[in-house]
Design goal:
alpha/beta, Aspartate Aminotransferase, domain 2, two-stranded parallel sheet, 15 helices, 14% strand, binds pyridoxal-5'-phosphate
Length: 407
């Protein structure tokens, strides 16, 4: 019956994490997986989340099914977080939001919807992007292409172009040539894996093009608050809404509330009018019902309480700001440590990139040496998770990186 079933090679990120767990070396350092670790190398349970859970427990709790679209208070809180409370797209009933199984669940539900209701639309993702984007959209039956994004530099150019920037002109040119109704997947902030984001001016240049070419933006907002701040990181969401464009946005609380395993996320769709919004919501619900039926209750209740109760909200914002500040401090510390070891190299990218990740420019064989000889784990693309650094492992990480870069 199952003889023809091919072995699964494993997800590169999860497999690497398992290799790390099984590595017996005491000095090993995990800069591979995209998880925020605190100064002691632990995945924090935020105090705001603990208090929300204590309140839920004290109130007696419920384990009932949620509606297909999730809890109303969670969905409303997500809308205010994304668009800003009272935004006209919200008051005009043009936005529909579903609580989903992480933002991965949201991304996939949106992809399934597109495959069913926008047949013929193809998807463009940044080169590079989070590996799972391609897997999820292809899994929905859609054809996936890439548009230019990360500038790997050109040592032969005059003057030589250093790696680490955004190929914005090439990106615009590629998108300008797409047929109408093409889906353009965009990282709203903290691009994974490069850490290279669009500036506000670049969003302002891109958005009219998306509108004129009648393209369908699909935002992935997995790191709200990890870049510049909660509102600043939602710039693309609000600018697209202000431009009157219809679009999708999948957002996550995995990182911003450190609730990875609770699977808290949402999918929102901005529609041209309230009637279309009602129909879109109905078909999204049908998609969910056919998949996992309804989202998990516990995480949604945590998110609703943390976002909705003023005292918990204030505490969360402080905790989120502290995570952001720690990442920035680690960027600076790694930058300084590498400059001290290799004065001839340009490590400025560590300071200009945002969010948990930096693209180091290391090639796969160099990453292999880092792991095998030094016990320092990065993705083979050269992606380094800055949030895995701390005062205890920084020096060893910098030593290892410098030795591989010098060699
Ligand atoms: C860019 C991006 N999108 C989406 C996700 C999915 O997050 P989750 O499903 O945990 O909400 C991640 C997680 O690593 C990510 O990096």
């Amino acid at each position: 019956m199952f003889k023809h079933v091919e072995p699964y090679p494993g997800d590169p990120i999860f497999s690497l994490n398992e290799d790390f767990q099984n590595d017996p070396r005491a000095h090993k350092i995990n800069l591979g997986i995209g998880i925020y670790f605190d100064e002691e190398g632990r995945i924090p349970v935020l105090e705001s989340v603990r208090r929300a859970e204590a309140r839920l427990l004290a109130a007696g709790g419920t384990k009932a099914y949620l509606p297909i679209e999730g809890a109303a208070n969670m969905r409303g809180a997500v809308q205010a977080l994304l668009f800003g409370a009272g935004h006209p797209v919200l008051s005009s009933g043009r936005v529909v939001t579903l609580q989903t199984v992480g933002s991965s669940g949201g991304l996939k539900v949106g992809a399934d919807f597109i495959a069913r209701w926008l047949p013929g639309s193809q998807v463009w993702v940044s080169d590079p992007t989070w590996d799972n984007h391609r897997a999820m959209f292809e899994g929905a039956g859609l054809v996936v292409h890439t548009y230019p994004y990360y500038d790997a530099g050109d040592a032969t150019a005059h003057p030589p172009r250093p790696a680490g920037g955004l190929e914005f002109d090439a990106m615009l040119a590629a998108l300008a040539a797409l047929p109408p109704r093409s889906v353009v997947l965009l990282h709203a902030c903290c691009h994974n894996p490069t850490g290279v984001d669009l500036s506000r001016a670049q969003w302002d240049a891109l958005i009219p093009l998306l509108r004129e070419r009648e393209l369908l933006p699909y935002l992935d907002l997995a790191y709200q608050g990890f870049g510049e701040g909660i509102d600043a990181d939602a710039y693309a969401v609000r600018a697209l809404a202000a431009a009157g464009i219809g679009f999708f946005v999948a957002n996550s609380f995995s990182k911003s509330m450190s609730v990875y395993g609770e699977r808290c996320g949402a999918l929102s769709v901005v529609c041209p009018d309230a009637l279309q919004a009602e129909h879109v919501l109905g078909q999204l619900k049908a998609t969910v019902r056919r998949n996992y039926s309804s989202p998990p209750i516990h995480g949604g209740q945590i998110v609703a309480l943390v976002l909705g109760e003023p005292e918990l909200r204030a505490l969360w914002e402080v905790e989120l700001a502290a995570m952001r500040a720690r990442i920035l401090a680690m960027r600076r510390a790694l930058h300084d440590a590498l400059v001290a070891r290799l004065p001839g190299h340009d490590f400025g990218y560590l300071l200009s990139q945002r969010g948990m990740f930096s693209y180091t420019g290391l090639c796969a064989p160099q990453v292999d040496v880092l792991r095998e000889q030094h016990g320092v784990y990065l993705l083979r693309s050269g992606r380094l998770c800055v949030a895995g650094l701390n005062e205890h492992n920084l020096r060893a990480s910098a030593d290892a990186l410098a030795s591989v870069l010098a060699g």
